[in-house]
Amino acid sequence: MSVPVIQFDRVSFGYGPTRVLEEVSFTVEAGQSTCVIGPNGGGKTTLLRLALGLLEPQRGEVRLFGEKPRDAVRRIGYVPQAMRFDPLFPVNALDIVLMGRIERVRFGFFSKACRLAAQAALAEVGLEAEARTPFANLSGGQRQRVLIARALASGADLLLLDEPTANVDLTVEAQFLDSLDRLRQRATVLMVTHDIDLISRLGDTVLCVNHRVHRHGVGDLHGELLREIFSGEFRLEHDRRSRHQAGDHSACQHG
User: Fold this and answer.
1) Long-range contacts of range 115-120, CB-CB < 8 Å, 24 or more positions apart?
2) What residues pair up with 210 in beta bridges, in sequence order?
3) Are 141 and 168 in contact (CB under 8 A)?
């Protein structure tokens, strides 16, 4: 039996007295493209930080490839919503992509193989002509594609994406989606997003995160279900129903 790429086993986490995630259990298998949705404050970002190893569970266990996240870091690529940087710092698109190869640096220099991999990744997202362009001079959509190229160049087996279309102009959306499509063909993907069109195109399965986690099929995301997930009035009912369907009747009021 193959080991899941991501495994959360009864994970709970909170900040001070505030419980953000409670008894979260799920797996992501190799090759799956899993989209994470849910209301603001429901725990999506916390879940991603736990997967990255930036946070430690207060209860339960997180495993990536059967290891602790910090031990699997070389197999993970991360694409944030945006990259914080000093616009006056002289770094170009190729420099950013080469950061994805930093684990392979020896003697303080990138090898020829690293540079070729970075250039190939830029070409894959359609930005080979911008390799020497200062990162600060790129549009928001181009910067996001550079960050995707960085993940591609790393050769990661698992890609964690946080709202990858949040800063993308509609004029380049089609090309950007093609870049994301290539990502999921090469690696397992866990992607936080509010973009329903993105989910329908790229998602194999959906995790609804609202302090607990429930799995849904992409085809199940009809208007009524989305209203339950994102509307405060119906979230508790959605949680109760989802747990009931999964065989957990602790929140039910059976007669």
Assistant:
1) 117/153, 117/155, 118/94, 118/149, 118/153, 119/94, 120/153
2) 212
3) yes
Domain contains 60: yes
pLDDT in tens, 190-219: 999 887 777 878 888 888 898 888 887 776
Nearest to 24 by CA among 54, 50, 60, 48: 60
- Is there a domain that residue 251 lies in? no
pLDDT tens, residue by residue, 148-163: 888 888 888 999 989 8
DSSP string over 23-51: EEEEEE-TT-EEEEE--TTSSHHHHHHHH
Give residue 169's pLDDT band: very low, low, confident or very high (50, 70, 90). low
Half-sphere exposure of 32 (CA within 13 A, CB side): 18
**Cα gap 36→52, rounded to integer Å:** 15
250 within some domain: no
Domain count, the chain: 1
pTM of the predicted structure, to 2 decimals? 0.78
- Which residues face 8 on adjacent strands? 26, 62
Residue 29 CA to residue 129 CA, distance in Å, equals 36
Say which amino acid occupies 213: V
Judge whether 210 and 38 are in contact, CB under 8 Å.
yes
